Amino acid sequence: MTMATHPLHTLGFEPIVLQPRKEPRSLADLGFEPATVTVGARGTAAARRTAQDPRLSAAMQTLRMHPQAVGALEPASGRTIVQPTDNPAINQALATDAMPAYTARLEALLRDIPGATLAATRDAKKPARLAEKIAGQGQPAETVSDYGAAQIAVESPQAKDAVVAAVKRHFPVLRQQDNFTLGDPEYRYRSFSLQVQMPNQSSEELQIVPREVLEANRQEHHDYKKVRNAELAGHSADQARAAARAINDAAMERFNSRNGGPRTIVKGAVVKGSRVRLADGALARVVYVDPNMRIARVRTEDGRNVTVRHKDLR
Fold this sequence. Notes:
This protein is an alpha+beta fold. It is built from seven helices and nine strands.
């Protein structure tokens, strides 16, 4: 099965500030049965928020947990099991507790890799988004990859390769997916994704992303939210999806250009912000579209503003 390809910024990276508890509490204190693991204060707080969120279905509110066979296929969904239990609150607690060690290990391995930076981490998933995945998108709790997640920005394909090799030396890797060159089929978001296992048996998601793609998505993540919200509501999201693809294609072209790689334009819908090639071969960005007259105003890389017909764009 494929891994989630939505940029992590659409999933809500925000600082998490929790008041420290005097003593760590076990999951048994929250009523989890059987409680075979003990977690600290941060994990307990994350588990409590997840378990109590009203947007999770009644079935997900139960405090029983059943151990899961990591690496096997979950029979109802056909998705790969990557978490140790079928209880989202326990999985969240374990991932949150593992995040400090995960972050420290990533920072250590990146010290010896030029052109690679730990760009973002998230130690707990928003309960509302978790509810969307489980109840709205049919992802059983044990198959959700990003209870904890991190992104590494890379400056070159060589840095990406070095990071992948280092991660495989330092972590057990449950699965990987390479969308670094062409992007995922839906959004063309570029990343090399790995699912790595931690000593407490939870697993964390890692995305290795071209720096230009990461920067573009920080600015334009609302297009991804439009697509996700429209699809959850049963509506068409073609225009927002086309805009997201254009943003990712343009960002990857900048990355390739800086690294001396191929400068390719993937032809799609002509929308504001998309990158196009004119009939004379010049590259340009669309700044205005008239869908009725089938014309667009574009700005070329050398600063010219040109009005063209859609059919004349490559």
